Amino acid sequence: MIKNWLITGDTHGKTAQRLAYIKEMMPEYKPEETAVIILGDVGFNYYKNKKDWKAKHQASEFGYTLYCLRGNHEDRFSNSKTEIIYQHDPNVSGMIMYEDEFPKIKYFLDWVNSYIIMGKKVLTIPGAYSVDKWYRLQNDWMWFPDEQLTAEEMAEAEEEFKYGEFDLVLSHTCPYDWMPTDLFLNCVDQSTVDKSMELWLNKFRHMFTWYTWCFGHYHADRIERPGVEMFYTEVENLETVIKRWDDYYDGKELDWWLPKSPNYWMGEGKVDV
Asked: HSE of 219 in the Cβ direction (CA atoms, 13 Å)?
């Protein structure tokens, strides 16, 4: 039975190292009682060969239950050539995917979906654009054409979840207005980057009510603005993350987060979500 929920960002095939950190630095979270949510680019379905199997095997040995959100540097698990098991998972009150050989590595669905975790309503939004797409193609590196949500999947999400209310949103990328431009790679011409999914998220986020939003993708750990947190290598207790923003909305002063927010570094002052 899952008693503890942790959350972290991209692991890029080095999930075992992240779990080793949890085991050593957070021993209070027993593997058999702990689930770890990874916000995309897990890397379990990247090479499409034995390297993926090895990464899954090494991660499984730690005994934690993993819930993986799809990023952009990995194939859709629903495209897997191995037999996929679709099953209702009571831990999240929703459908997940997994392989019989690795039952503790679970995948949120490859399109926008809702779950209930710790009694909280959760919306999951997978996918993003690879800013290094052309470099990958030129060097014959892995790139996945359906890395972003399709127009049809976006439209279905709007129809199903507009007017909804969610305690927590988990996504790989983020809405356009929240994009951390200070983290953009200098070597990438931004005019070549497809930002259609971020632009769509900018619109979509106003179609429903949400309270806490966590995302990965940009390789930094920080609070982007009130209620919005970016994850990379940091590992946090999910209940703690949700509670701090519930407290903030209830009027509790959280001055400690100000130095971590780039919106304050850039002199913008208080920002709206």
From this structure: 6
